[in-house]
Structure formats: C-alpha cells, structure tokens
Design brief:
- The complex is a heterodimer of chains A (503) and B (334).
- Chain A is of the alpha+beta class and 503 residues long.
- Helix content of chain A is 33%, strand content 24%.
- The relative contact order of chain A is 0.20.
- By secondary structure, chain B is mostly helical.
- The longest helix of chain B is centred in the first third of the chain and has 26 residues.
- Chain B is elongated and about 80 Å long.
- The chains are: A alpha+beta (503), B mainly alpha (334).
Chain lengths: 503, 334
C-alpha cells in the first residue's frame, strides 16, 4: 500500500484535494523544486470541479459528496408515460429522489462490476432508498425505466459539478500556455452568447459583423450598440468617458451616456460584462470587463471563451496533476487523510491510512478541514435535454434575465465530447439558497429549452466553506469554485497561494 | 497586404540560412540566364517550356518569361491537336495553382490564367468559380480574386442563363457585405451588377430593388458611419438615377436619414460632412430648393465640423466661403 511506502517520509508541501486550485498550486510548487505529496480522499480527480459519467454522478451524490459543501441534491427524472407524449412534466414537480444531508453514506461500489447493465442497475439500487415515492428495484416503475434508458449512454456523459469556461485572453489560457499544458488539453470555442428572457432566446451580437447582419435590431439599436463597442472597448476612449461620468454605477453609465435600455442593456450588462443581479459594479470596472471580453475575441477565432473538452475544469485539473507528477511528485487517491500540527511545533503530521508523513507546509481544499463556517451559497441545476436546442454541434453561454434574478447558463452538446449525440446539457447556476432559487432556475431552463424536454434534472446547493482563524501561515485553505463563468478567479486564487508558499 | 493576419517580426538569419539563400540565388541566376539564352535563340521546345516553369515557380513577376512561355506553348505540335491542347492547358492550370500559393497577388500569373482559360477548348467556368470562392473565403478583400471573378462570371454568362448568374452574383455580394460591411470589393462588384438588374426590372420591381439598396446602405451607415463604403455607394446610386427628379427624391431621403442619425450622435464627422454636401448638391440640381433655414444649418454645421475635426479646418473654411458666395449668406467660419 502507498501509505506504508510513504510512512515516515517528509515533504516540503502536502496538498489535500485535487480541485483546480490545489492542482495548480501543487504543479507550481513541484516546478519550483519542492517535494510535493498530493492526496485526494476520493477515488477521482477534480474535487469540487470533478466531472462524472451519469452513473458516476449518482455515485458521487450518494457516496462521495461532502455534506457540508453540498447539503442538498435533488434528482428529477422525467416520467413520460406511454401514449401520453404531450404531457410535459413541469420542472417544479416533486423531485423523484432527494438525497439529503442526513442520508446514510452508502458503501463504495464494487469495482469488479463494470458492465453497462450492472452499472445502470447499480446506480438505480443506490438511488432507490432516496425515492420520494416508493419504488421497487425489481419491477422498475416509469422513473426507473427512464433512468435506465438514460444510463444506456452512461459513458458518453462527462457531467461537471462546477462548469466553467476559459476567457481566451485570460489568466487560465496564459497559464496553460506557460506550463505547456495547452499543447495537449483540447478546447472548443464557445460559439454563441445568448440572452434569455421570458419572451425568448436571442443571440447577443458581439462584433461589427454581427450587428450589421442582425435582423432583430433596429437601426437605432445598431448604432447604440456600435457606440458601446467602439467607445467602451477602447482603453483611451473609455478612460475619457469614465472621467467625464465620475463615480457612477456601470448600469447608470450605460443607461444615461449610451442610452441603452431593454434587451440591449441586458445584453451588454449581463451577457458581456456579466454583472450579477445584486452586484454593484462601477463604471471603471464595467468598462474593464467589456474590454476583457472584446480583447479576448479574435485570439482563437471570433469567440471570447473556450470550453474544455471531455469535462472542462476537471480535465484541466488532471492535466496540472500530470504535470506535477512528471516533476517528481507523489500521488495518492482514495485514501483517508487527516492533518495535525506536529508535536515539536515544526510543520505538520499527516496521517494517511496507517502511515504518518511529515509536511513543512500544507494546502487543503476546505472540505478537509474539521471545523468550517459556511460562506457563499450557490444553487445549481444540471439539466439533460432530449434535443440540442441551441445548435447541434456547438457550445454556448446563456444568461437568463428575469424580474427576480439573473442566472448564468452553459449549454453543451456532443461538440465537447461530454454529451451523447442528439442530447444536450444545460447547466444553470445562481447565488443563493436552493429553497429560494429553485423556481428561478426552473424559469431559466424552461425559457431556454424551447420545445425540448428535460430528461433528468439535478438540483444542488453548494456552499463555499471558510476556515475560521487559521492555525498557522503554513496551512492554507482553498475556497473552490465561485459563481463566475470563467476560470480566471481560480487561477488568481491559486497563484496568490503559490506565492505565499514559495515566499 | 493580407487583412486580419499578424505580422511576423523578421529575425536575423543564421549562417546556415544565409548559405542556403546564397545557393538559392546562384541557382536562380543560372536558371534565369539559361531561359533568357533560350529565348534569344528562339528555342520553342518542351525543354524550354520546362525551364520557364522552373523559373516562374521561383519568381512569378517575370512577365517576359510568361510571354515566352505562351509563345512556346502555341508553337508546340500538341497545340494543334484539340485533345492534346486540352490536356496541356489543364496541366498549365494545375501549375498555376501551385504558383497561386506562392504569390496570390501576382498580376502576371492572373493574366496567364485568364489566357489559359480562354484558350482551353473545353473550359470549366463553374470549377473556376469555386476556386475564386475559395480564394475570397481566405481573404475577402483580395481584389485580384474579385477581378478574376468578374472575368469568370462574364464567360459563365455566355454558357448559362445570364440573368440567373447576375442574380446569384448579386446575392453573393450581399453575403460578403454581411460578413464585412467595410469590404470595398464587394460593394464595387455590387455596383457593377445593379444596373443590369435595374434595366431588366419593371417599375414596381425597380422600386423594390432600390428600396433594398437603401436599407442596406442605412444599415451600414448606422453600423459604422465613419466607414466610407456605404456613403460612396450612396453617391453612385445617385449617379445612376435616370432623371434629376429621381435624384432630388433620393437626396431628400438621404438628408432625412442623416438628420435621424445626427439626432443620436450629433458630432459624427462623416454624417455632418455628408449633410452639407447633400444640400450643396441639391442646390446645384435645383436652384432655390434649399431653404434659408437649411442654408443656415449648413453654415453652422461647417463651424461645428471645424471644431470636431480640426485636422481638416482649412477644407471646411474653404467650403464655407464657397457656399456663402453661392448662396449669398453670411460665412460663419471666418
């Protein structure tokens, strides 16, 4: 066993968790010549950024998830009875499975069972105890049948817990290029940016060509949009505009200086500058965000974002781990681990299975800490649709702007190699508790999915965990994914921790 | 110049690269004097043809060699046989494809391609058109490709329904303008096609076509008022009107459109200039049709222009003084 070989050894840095931030920190420390031990208590990479097959996702919900980080998971399986094609189940219906906080942890699966049929029945067996209406495994009811059918394509899914995209001229892409990972991690352009409102879905025109060719914008709207693009996107000109406007909110600047309202305002404010519902962004920051977007266009084609293939963030995290391993670091997965300050006061003692390891410094994903307080709360929905609603071979960002909130959405299809052909997945997320935001998430999905039906919808509430009063400067906690759509905040967080560690 | 491509910084060549370049130069000079020698001795053989081919692959700009090549081809026995000529010229087109990749903007190469096609016993104009489509897809503003396109289209119209070809071409320019409304080649080609389309149309259709053109221009002007393509096309549209009456109608329409735009954006340089010159034009076409208030508006506009576009202050002063004399109004720019 790994822990026997490692028993008694000491490392410059022990990293717990293989989420994106931890993986970046580990690989940078290893590149700087530190001896690194990288551990994950789960048998998979990616932590809160992980991606799973459909059965893997169910297994995660039942066996692996940290109940403090993800207290609630609800799964709703569409039950379309035969001969009743027209009846469309409402997303707000009672969920089929509720996997709550107090549910027992089921035993880890038997790895010998891997045939498709048994994986599907295994997933069903796991879910059965959480069914909201009694369900019999031997004589599957309609929900079970629908789930079994979905599980036939199990391996073609790579469903992400925290989907994010990379800004073409952002920190993540720069880091991937610097580290050489960019040479083998595959991306696909996020081809479109959609504004979703209750009365429909519209593409956000992003360039002069889009604006010129648009048939849904009036001439005056075209002129207004072009002015925003040419003025705000230009550093010199936007500086002058900001000086003139003084200390105002970005929204006010758009409304008053550029006379934007209605869908134009939503498109620029929510879809391009990505200002949240209750977020206060000043004019200078708003202009910076537009510039970030516009300068990202044209680097790898006309789009501003790239989407990772085969499960995005998780795939990138694994690539950093690979880089770290190549630099000589040791990896241990699926092993219980705990950390105590060393008795002699210098560094830490890491208990890994039966073995003990000494660490000068420790970085951990906050789910590894024993006492935590709850920070930011996010509500997420993952919706598998029976048709590619926003294009068959494409990837898109979408933003739902409703009267009670703004929801970020990522639409993926077979183009990302993470969804079977003919289906699509819509990820939606918003800040706040699920109890208060479930209806909003449902509105966002319904407004986007058009005529397609939701085959399976998973709702969850995720909490960022904060560790109060850190014991020492030598033990640092990472925070995990936030509400932003791009990966840059993870890179920023990881790099500032790396700086602390390397001094 | 290639649009939308990054310029690669030149770097100091290594010794190996210098040697390589010197050897290449020596080979080129030897080949050049050999070809010129053959030409001086009036040699018209396949060997000579092959030598010109090697030389032109290295340098596409030697028009003397292109001329010599054509002379050789016409003097070969194969030229007289239709089948052999067909295959020889098809090979020639293949060779030219290779040359296109080296230098897409060589006048001599395009000239030679036009010659080869026109000598081909059974030319394939549709094939040529798809080649041009590909070239324009690579660089939408390559005017050689556009020029060659017009040549191909003209020939295509001899073999196919000319009106249908014109309509297709017209739709093609619309698509190219939608892709990039600053593509002058596309606007220009459109202006070449429109008269024929208008000439064929009856009055209601004619009005509909002109209406579409107006909408396209408006669209371009609202998208980017400082881009000159749509404004130039507007001027050209005025020129092809059949009567002064039509011109005045179009001018009035244009003035209204500019005013609408200026309401949104009062300091746009190009719309301001256009406003003044449209009034001047209107006054020239129909003396007395510009009201006193409009004359004053023009003089004020010229003053504004002097302020917002100081680089051309002299030009505005000059226009202002000319108009004030013509219209007998006070010159505000002095």
């Amino acid at each position: 066993m790994a822990e026997r070989e490692l028993d008694g050894q000491s490392f410059d840095l022990v990293v717990l968790g293989t989420g994106l931030e931890e993986a970046i920190i580990a690989s940078e420390a290893a590149a700087a010549g530190k001896s690194v031990l990288h551990i994950d208590r789960n048998p998979y990479y990616g932590g809160a950024y992980a991606s799973f097959t459909l059965s893997g996702l169910i297994e995660w919900a039942v066996c692996h998830r940290d109940h403090r980080q993800v207290p609630i998971v609800e799964i709703l399986v569409s039950t379309k009875a035969e001969g009743e094609e027209e009846r469309q189940q409402q997303l707000t219906d009672q969920p089929t499975f509720v996997i709550g906080k107090n549910s027992q942890r089921a035993a880890a699966p038997n790895p010998a069972e891997s045939a498709t049929g048994s994986r599907a029945s295994e997933a069903l067996r796991r879910l059965a105890p959480f069914a909201t209406n009694s369900m019999c495994v031997d004589e599957p009811d309609s929900a079970a049948k629908a789930l079994l059918e979905l599980l036939q394509n199990d391996r073609n899914y790579q469903i992400e817990l925290a989907p994010k995209v990379a800004l073409c001229r952002g920190r993540m892409i720069d880091l991937l290029i610097d580290s050489g990972i960019g040479e083998y991690v595959q991306f696909r352009g996020v081809e479109h940016n959609y504004l979703v409102r209750d009365n429909g879905v519209e593409r956000v025109p992003e360039s002069k060509e889009d604006i010129f060719a648009s048939t849904t914008l009036s001439l005056i709207e075209k002129r207004k949009l072009m002015r925003v693009i040419t003025t705000v996107a230009d550093q010199e000109q936007s500086k002058a505009v900001i000086e003139q406007a003084g200390d105002v909110l970005f929204e006010k600047l758009l409304r008053e200086r550029f006379k934007l309202d209605g869908k134009l305002l939503d498109a620029v404010l929510r879809c391009v500058a990505r200002v949240g519902f209750n977020e206060h962004v000043d004019a200078a920051e708003g202009c910076r965000r537009i510039q970030r977007y516009v300068t990202s266009m044209g680097r790898y084609g006309r789009m501003a974002y790239l989407c990772g293939l085969y499960g995005g963030g998780s795939e990138i995290a694994q690539s950093f781990c690979r880089l770290c391993a190549v630099a000589g670091s040791t990896y241990v997965l699926g092993e219980k681990v705990s950390v105590e300050p060393a008795n002699d006061g210098a560094g830490f003692t890491v208990s890994l299975g039966e073995g003990t390891i000494k660490a000068a410094k420790v970085v951990m994903d906050s789910t590894y800490a024993s006492t935590v307080t709850h920070g930011h709360v996010l509500s997420r929905a993952i919706c598998i649709l029976d048709a590619p609603v926003l294009g068959e071979d494409t990837t898109a960002l979408a933003t739902y702007v409703g009267s009670s909130g703004v929801v970020s959405m990522l639409y993926v299809t077979q183009a990302t190699m993470a969804v079977p052909k003919g289906k699509s997945i819509l990820y939606a997320w918003v800040e706040g508790q699920l109890l208060e935001n479930k209806v909003l998430l449902c509105h966002a999905i319904s407004a986007t999915r058009g005529n397609a039906s939701a085959l399976l919808t998973l709702f969850m509430e995720t909490h960022s965990l904060e560790v109060a009063g850190s014991v020492s400067d030598d033990i640092i906690h990472t925070k995990g994914p936030d509400a932003t759509v791009d990966l840059d905040s993870a890179v920023t967080a990881a790099q500032s921790i790396t700086e602390l560690i390397l001094g | 110049m290639m649009h939308g491509r990054r310029r690669v910084a030149a770097k100091e060549p290594t010794q190996d690269e210098k040697d390589e370049a010197r050897q290449q130069l020596e080979r080129y000079c030897a080949l050049n004097s050999r070809v010129m020698g053959l030409k001086a001795q009036n040699v018209f053989t396949t060997d000579a043809l092959d030598a010109t081919r090697q030389l032109l692959e290295l340098n596409t700009e030697l028009h003397t060699v292109w001329n010599y090549r054509r002379t050789i081809m016409k003097k070969l026995d194969a030229w007289e046989d239709t089948e052999k000529r067909q295959s020889m010229l098809e090979q020639e087109l293949g060779f030219l494809m290779k040359v296109i990749r080296n230098n897409i903007k060589s006048y001599w190469m395009w000239n030679h391609r036009m010659w080869a096609l026109s000598q081909l016993p059974q030319p394939t104009w549709r094939g040529e058109l798809s080649l041009v489509d590909k070239l324009i897809g690579m660089d939408a503003r390559n005017y050689h490709a556009w020029d060659y396109r017009r040549f191909v289209i003209a020939r295509l119209k001899d073999t196919e329904d000319g009106d249908a070809v014109d309509e297709q071409e017209f739709a093609f320019t619309t698509a190219q303008i939608n892709r990039d409304c600053a593509n002058h080649s596309a606007w220009h080609n459109r202006s070449k096609l429109l008269p024929a389309i208008l000439a064929r149309a009856d009055q209601p259709r004619r009005e509909k076509v002109l209406q579409t053109e107006n909408e396209l221009i408006q669209n371009a002007i609202y998208t980017d008022p400082e881009d000159q393509n749509a404004w130039l096309y507007y001027d050209w549209l005025l020129d092809i009107q059949q009567s002064d009456e039509d011109r005045i109608k179009l001018l009035r329409g244009k003035i209204a459109a500019i005013r609408e735009l200026l309401e949104l954006e009062e300091d746009g340089t190009r719309p301001l200039i256009e406003l003044v010159s449209r009034f001047a034009e209107l006054g020239r076409l129909q003396p007395g049709s510009v009201s006193d208030a409009e004359k004053e508006e023009c003089m004020k506009t010229l003053c504004t222009l002097k302020g917002v576009d100081s680089y051309h202050a002299g030009r505005y002063t000059d226009i202002s003084s000319a108009l004030s004399k013509r219209w007998k109004v006070h010159d505000l720019c002095v």
